[in-house]
């Protein structure tokens, strides 16, 4: 019995000594995706698991939010951190702590392919019917993310996620979709029958410089996070995760 009491005290002490860090995320494939059972998956969830496995001072947990509400939620401290954000997406570095970029990707223009279309199609984006994701920021619009402004200025069709862009293209509800490259490549790997049906631009709409953002009062500091990420990089864990999602790493600094 004494050893059970001792074990209980040890576990209680261990749990008290572990700081909980809430990581916000919203549907943004391949970083955060909602499963059919209502749960969440994606690179953000996998990196959270790797961070938890690599140390015992903090316990990282995922907290879902929406693309539109993430700014206020982080500033109000509803979660401590966000992963895989670009500072151009409406963030003010004066109110948050911003890490150096540690990963990059971007978005490509995608259209239905036919015998009359080639790369010149994408030279006149402003003349085409565009399809994007509601709440996202796009390079062609100088990173404007307000859905009302985007629809008024550009007559863009806004859908809920990347796969909805592809479905809308196939239904010819627009001329050109703007899709995250890593998601597009993974989608086509699972749906090879669509490769010949889609024309993918050689030019980017934007290139991401993806960073971690921290609330100023978070008990996790940027140097500590950088140390944990560097340790995962040295073990080869980051390279394994990036490769699994078709992404390219920038050297950790």
Automatic annotation (TrEMBL):
Residue ranges annotated for the Solute-binding protein family 3/N-terminal domain, each copy included: 20-249
InterPro entries tied to this protein: Solute-binding_3/MltF_N (IPR001638)
Entries under Gene3D superfamilies matching the protein: Periplasmic binding protein-like II (3.40.190.10)
Pfam families: SBP_bac_3
Record-given protein name: ABC transporter substrate-binding protein
């Amino acid at each position: 019995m004494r050893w059970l009491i001792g074990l209980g005290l040890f576990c209680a002490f261990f749990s008290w000594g572990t700081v909980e860090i809430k990581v916000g995320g919203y549907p943004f494939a391949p970083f955060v995706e909602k499963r059919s059972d209502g749960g969440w998956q994606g690179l953000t969830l996998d990196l959270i698991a790797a961070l938890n496995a690599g140390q015992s001072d903090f316990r990282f947990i995922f907290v879902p939010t929406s693309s539109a509400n993430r700014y206020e939620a982080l500033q109000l401290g509803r979660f401590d951190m966000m992963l895989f954000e670009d500072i151009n997406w409406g963030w003010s570095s004066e109110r948050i702590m911003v890490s150096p970029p540690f990963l990059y990707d971007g978005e490509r223009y995608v259209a239905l392919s036919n015998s009359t279309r080639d790369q010149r199609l994408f030279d006149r984006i402003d003349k085409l019917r565009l399809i994007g994701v509601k709440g996202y920021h796009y390079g062609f619009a100088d990173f404007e993310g307000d859905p009302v402004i985007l629809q008024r200025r550009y007559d863009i069709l806004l859908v809920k996620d990347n796969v909805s862009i592809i479905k809308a293209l196939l239904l010819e509800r627009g001329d050109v979709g703007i899709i995250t490259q890593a998601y597009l490549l993974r989608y086509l790997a699972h749906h090879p029958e669509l490769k010949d049906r889609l024309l993918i631009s050689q030019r980017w709409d934007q290139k991401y410089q993806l960073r971690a953002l921290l609330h100023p009062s978070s008990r996790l500091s940027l140097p500590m996070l950088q140390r944990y990420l560097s340790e995962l990089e040295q073990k080869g864990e980051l390279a394994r995760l990036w490769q699994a999602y078709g992404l390219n790493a920038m050297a950790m600094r």
